[in-house]
Amino acid sequence: MADERFSHAIRAYEAGRYKEAELLSSEILRDEPDNFRALNMLGMCLHERGESDEGAAYVTKALACNSQYLAAYNNLAAIYKETKQFEWALAILSAAIDIFPGSAQLYLLKAAILLELDRSADAIESLNISLQLEPGSPEALTKMGAALSKLGRYPDALIFHKKALGLRPDYALAWLNIGQALNLMKRYSEALAACDKAIALDPNFAEAHVGRGHLLHSLGRYDEALAAYQTALKRESNLAEAWAGLGLTLRHLGKRKDAFDALQRAKTLNPGLKFLPGDVLHAKMQICDWRDFENESSSLIARVENSQPVADPFMFLSLPSTAAQRLRCAKIYAATVVHAIDQHKPVARSSHPRIRLGYISADFREHAVAHLITGVLERHDKSRFETFAISLGRNDNSSMRTRIERAVEHFIDVHSKSDQEVVNIMRDLEIDIAIDLTGYTQDARTNVLATRPAPLQINFLGYAGTMGADFIDYIVADETVIPIADQPHYKEKVVYLPDTYFSAGGAMVFPGDYLSRSNVGLPEKSFVFCSFVNSYKITPDIFSIWMRLLAKIEGSVLWLQAGDAAENLRREARARGILPERLVFAARKNFEDYLAQHRLADLFLDTLYFNAHTTASHALWMGLPVLTCLGSTMAGRGGASILGAIGLPELVAKTAEEYEALAIRFAADPVWRESIRAKLAGNRKTHPLFDTARYTRHLEAAYDIMWRRYSAGERPECFRVRELKQTEFGTN
Predict the structure, then answer these.
(1) What is the pLDDT of residues 472-511, one digit of tens each?
(2) What are the contacts of 720-723 at 24+ separation with CB within 8 A?
(3) Which of 39, 41, 518, 557 is a Cys-bridge partner for 62, taking CB atoms 3.0 to 4.6 Å apart?
């Protein structure tokens, strides 16, 4: 009778009728309390109903009744895996393998858990044993492919996924894994076809829709990616990966409030997703939602110090963190995300008549980095340097893109190429010095650099921090942004330029005086503070200072470019006793109008932890004084470097208190204010900040020293570039 009821329970469980299976198992246990099969079944039913702790207790009791019950070991380990109790799961599997060393399934489950723990090499070892025991297992083969993908061995991964399909052509998971590997290899059309095949085989396979969303996101087809994630959530509403993908896509579409909501939902469902806590806090900072900011930022910093992969290095720049903490964050990210494609080592290039410079960027378009580097590219000494632009980003058909294409001798669009193809192209070109202008910012292709396509590789200009990686030799800086004492907090060797590491001139227009305050909603007679930084750089402490300035300077206003953050900033102003209408929000404008609007403000207020960089140079170019506060990190000291290069050190505060006092003095003392404005107007033409020829010659001197050291077989070391004489600059 018990056997018949148990057979009914199995059929009910397999059909998803868990309540029925639970009742049948309970009936058996009333008659036979030690029936290990019924105990195991009852435990699994409770687990499926969301009562995993109670379920695990029943499966454990089943093992107590029969320590040779293989199914119970599998089930208990699976429960612990699904509830993220990975170490418990591994302990159960270790005990089971001692009893059942010939069980391929146990090794397969162990591998799945090791992959969850990012122990890919250990997972491969377990999978090798599983495949020895059961060579024809499609599950083990595609799991092996997944493990190899995690190690960046995408071609090897494809071999195993295809072996799995040879055994089971309708295996949707294998098709999805192929699509994901091909996506990472930038073989987009093949990847999309594989994802579509997985969905055709199983339209309700939510993870396949997520994979398709990731692929479309990579292609910049954000509306289609959004639809793919939404389809996944219709199939499985609590799929954290789908919510995370949805949030990141909404962010790209400029829907920042919705992006934060989606990312927060993902974090609630699976707080263990790598780098998700940082994505959530960054999204929250983009809309200036500072509820519990101090606790959340402190927690994130503490977790980074504990070597947890919770934040990507770029978002971490905007937190009140130290240079040592930022190095730790970058190291974690590099170790977790970045993989060398192959182990080929480049050889010295001794036959070139000129040093070959390969500038690598995702931002050769209408972008801040393009505005900074274009003048340098145009002014390189072509008799000594052969210039290449390796373009990772999409062509936006802008005038800036065209200008960059003309500035270099070789413009190579590799946007649609795989990482391996980019590496091969750079090796074939025999690039001597690869100059990375992207760092850990959007659309970076760091795996290319990790594979060492060039003998020397430099972190320069586009990312204000260390990359924390062995494959970057130098970082270009100055003694303001990276003091000598801070060198241990940078994985790269520091190259010190004489004036500033920041290239500000050579690509900007100088628009006419055609805007008025009434055109942009500003009061005609008021003192106008402004800060046209990205909203995530605004933190509660600096905003509190700004509100105290408005309280002390009668009738003054604060002019911001905050977008989706406006509502929260108005609320924060009111909470600090300031009428929300004293905040004015600038509309998005074309570049020339954006520059012209600086003439309407009186003082640009810098942020604390991640300074205005390109934005600050724009203000100074237009004659608008910038006030900054010297921070403790490269990103927080850029403003001081820029002001030093324009000859305005008196606008660099050493403390937050001095920053506030200087702002009040500037607003209240018209004589001093006009003297600063006059000094800026004169220095703009005479000081190094906008002298692109001077800057380029100093940068070229740095390249010469790096290359001489390399050619002599010397290891990278920190060094200073001597200040060249005026006669050595050439024309600006």
Answers:
(1) 999 999 999 999 999 999 999 999 999 999 998 765 778 8
(2) 720/496, 720/498, 721/495, 721/496, 721/497, 721/498, 722/498, 723/498, 723/499, 723/698
(3) 39
